[in-house]
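Narrative of activities, Objective 1.

The group set out to show that a structural description can be obtained from nothing but a protein's sequence at a throughput compatible with the screening campaign. Below is one input-output pair from the validation batch, recorded exactly as produced.
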Amino acid sequence: MVETLVVTELDLGGHRLELGDLTHVMAVINMSPESKNAFSVAGSPAEALERARRFRDAGATLIDLGGQSSHYDNPTISADLELERLLPAVRLLVDDGFPVSIDTWKPAVAAACLAEGAVLVNDTGGLADPEMREAVVRAGAAAVVMYVEGANPHDVGDVVISANKAAITRRWMESRLESLATEGISQTIVDPGIAINYRGDYQAYTRMQLEVIRDLDIIRTLGRPVLVPIPRKLEDHRVAAYITAALQSGADMIRVHDVEMACDLAALFGRLPG
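Output recorded for this entry:
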């Protein structure tokens, strides 16, 4: 069994994040021009830095940089191209004092970005790849453990709809955390994976995403900080509903494209770090 811990703070490469009655906002900046969320794409490293500064001023704690679109409709690019997109932005943000998270499932990408000062690996492959785990251990980095029904977001089929998805996710996560701990990876953040795009019944998935957020207490029993990735919807009011539900459910972090909205709502709920 994974021991239930009371984690009061995270040390991300010298950036200390207080936990408790707070929700940290992880701001998404995409360096992938093919991203479905075009408004979140930065066209250059300089633009990424400008956006990051604006998000920090709004109250965001972390910047999550991605160079590979996770939508299954988009092409899987090479690690070299992903790094060509990411590394200049990583260097600029790290030099400006940002704690940078890298959104990737490719071990070579994670390793190179960690070497440049990124402090967190947001592995959309669920830390299943031994090479990814080795990269995290070598760097002594923290990692997001994401629930995913496939080897990576481009290797998914129809989503499995279940009335007890949070409990299913928790069981999967407990097993994965046990395995990671034996390899020396213990500074972990858990992510129920509800922002991954799956094929299948979109409306049923939409409802299940909200149900998982409402059942967050089930996942919190793992004793790890919980990151809720806010699903990006065409309707802004639905995005606001997911953010609100995550705040009410006590998420330790929320990963968002709509950063200013999320920071404003977190402040309204009294959960935005001071």
